[in-house]
Amino acid sequence: MSNTISKQFAAQFEAMVDWVNGSLNSLSDEDLKMEITPGKNHGVWVLGHLIASDDDFSVFMGKGDLLFPDYYEMFGQGSKLQPVENYPPIPLLREQWKTTIEKNRKIYSKLQDEELNEPHGRMENPEKDFFKTKQRIIFYWQLHQMYHAGQLSIILSKVGKALY
Question: Which of 37, 60, 139, 143 is most buried as measured by Cβ atoms within 10 A of its Cβ?
Fold first, then answer.
């Protein structure tokens, strides 16, 4: 089987990783401390949130456990923004991002097209579940990650290091 759709999802994942990494590699640790707008997300939170959500991806796909289970409370949806000193050190977050990417790269490399319409790994109530299938998880996870990649691009612009 050719797995055409799964290969495309893997390629899109790599494009997202390239965009995020292009921004992260251009931002210093000090740059990541900058808020996007006053009182809103700063780069440290965005990086932690990218880790937490991509870590959670494996669970939704039914293909692994969380590497950083404590991060959901710190960086998950609805978490309260804290001063950067209250988060793990930025060099550690950068390494954990790489680890999370590698975990998901393996998931995408083994993904089969026939899996895409299966219920996702956290399905509890099919009637109320927005995502429903693994394919929809991929659609929305990648859109979500690109949204936050855009936030990193805003920080790049603010510090005068815009890539585009």
Answer: 60
Q: Is residue 163 part of a domain?
A: no
Please report the beta strands in 34-120, taking only residues with DSSP state E, as ranges in sequence order: none
Q: Does residue 70 contact residue 81 with C-beta atoms inside 8 Å? A: no
How far apart, in Å, are the Cα atoms of 95 and each of 40, 51, 136? 24, 10, 28
For residues 58 and 107, is the Cβ–Cβ distance under 8 A? yes
Q: Calculate mean pLDDT across residues 118-146.
A: 87
Contact 6, 112 (CB under 8 A): yes
Angle at 129 between CA 98 and CA 144, to 5 degrees: 30
Whether the per-residue pLDDT at 7 is higher than 90: the answer is: yes
Burial class of 9 by CB neighbour count within 10 A (0 to 12, 13 to 18, 19+): buried
Q: Which residues make Cβ contacts (< 8 Å) with residue 7, sequence separation at least 6?
A: none
Token reading at 4: 């055409």
For residue 164, tell me if it sits in a domain.
Answer: no
Residue 19, domain extent: 4-158
Record the pTM.
Answer: 0.92
